[in-house]
Amino acid sequence: MKLASTVFGLVIASAMHASQLFAATLTINVVNQQQQPLADAVVELRSLSNPPLKPQRIQVAQQKLTFVPFVSAVPAGSVVEFPNLDKTRHHVYSFSPAKQFEIQLYADKPEAPISFNTPGIVALGCNIHDYMQAYIYVAESNLLAVSDETGQLIWPDIELGDYQLLVWHPWQLTPRQQAALNVVMPEQTETVTLAVDLTQQKPQAPQRGFGNR
Predict the structure, then answer these.
(1) Tell me: the pLDDT tens digits for 62-117?
(2) How far apart are the C-alpha atoms of 105 and 102, rounded to whole Å?
(3) Fewest CB within 10 angstroms: 9, 163, 171, 186, which?
(4) What domains, with CATH codes, occur in the chain?
């Protein structure tokens, strides 16, 4: 029995070692044309093996009269909840080809989340507060993320191999970028430069006053 346990342990250790040999930590830094870190950029990696999608369930809240987060990214088939954390009611909608929907005036939480089944960019708005804007990137892959204020995205356990890299930002000046990416090293870092409209800023609520709560 002890021998069998030892052999079983060796098999597990060998399998783990083999998996480590075929996996990598991939870091992607997204910068603008002035080489400054770019937040709210979506990076999607599409594998040639095309694994099945793993839908997610996320939230895009209305808080302090803005959408939070400003940019979200999910695989196709995911569902999104739109909780209203404000004291005033909101009327959330999208006319985007990838998803058209409308949640009429409501407070707290809608009765049901919204499904996003078609890949593409979904622009969100509020019929009550015109300045409120946000975006949901619906992807064809599970490997996607949104850059933070440092412009960085990290995949700690990605398979070595060939990928199609797509980068998108709400303020980009050119169509969505696509490039081939070959992950060949256990620790690999790439930098992507995306030209954006530098005059744009995230939507902000106006100064508080009557009706703005």
Answers:
(1) 999 999 999 999 999 999 999 999 999 999 999 999 999 999 999 888 889 999 99
(2) 9
(3) 9
(4) 25-51+148-204 (2.60.40.1120), 54-139 (2.60.40.420)
